[in-house]
Amino acid sequence: MNEPEKLSRTIWVGVGLVIVLLCLSFVLSRVRERPVAKTKLPVIGQIADFTLTNQFNQPVALADLRGKVWVADIIFTSCAGPCPRMMRQMRSLQEALPKTSGAKLVTLTTHADVDTPEVLKKYGEKYNADFHQWLLLTGDKVQIANLGIDSLKLTAVEKKPEERTDPADLFIHSTIFVLVDKQARLRGIYETGGENVEWDVVKKDLLAAIAQLEREP
User: Which of the four CATH numbers 2.50.20.20, 3.30.200.20, 3.40.30.10, 3.50.50.100 does domain 45-215 have?
Assistant: First the structure.
């Protein structure tokens, strides 16, 4: 083979290698861009039927939330402990939800005797709650307990008078947010407090889980 032929073959081999490398680079870039499949969220339990009262003194039943993904927690308005932080976190979640999301936020009170619809409305306004999206619920104590403790796995225990450190120290309650799907099934539990908890990370996980559940039938 003469020199010109050798040179020509070398050039074509080089061009071929460049094309192969470009194709390989393109394929790898597409693989990296492909969203990682989300792990299917487990079904923890079924939410039992309930009827409570919202901040506008209107009844809210489980049927009103079917077909919606929702996040719930439990607080009381005179709480001087974690409740203000939890309300700020729920507001932060409210603000971070896409405008296209139909997700609802649900806050239960542990202190139904004091936290009337009017009190809850003022409390929600204090935290800039969007009442089209965020429901603050009170009502029958038994139904609150059935929903909060039995169905949503939230904890709320009234302290004995001798155990209270101040007049506002009324309840021991969980600081978790829980996630419910369109079929009224409990699908996630998220801790919002504690020294090892980073709210921004929790919020990111919650937003991703909400989006995942909203894509489910």
Answer: 3.40.30.10
**DSSP states along the chain:** --HHHHHHHHHHHHHHHHHHHHHHHHHHHHHHHSPPPPPPPP--EEPPP-EEE-TTS-EEEHHHHTTS-EEEEEE-TT--SSHHHHHHHHHHHHHHS-TT---EEEEEES-TTT--HHHHHHHHHHTT--TTTEEEEB--HHHHHIIIIIIT---EEEPPGGG-SSTT--EEE--EEEEE-TTSEEEEEEE--STT--HHHHHHHHHHHHHHHHH--
Note the pLDDT tens digit of each residue in 105-114. 999 999 999 9
Q: Structure pTM?
A: 0.77
Q: What is the mean pLDDT of residues 126-138?
A: 98
The identity of residue 113, as a single letter, is D
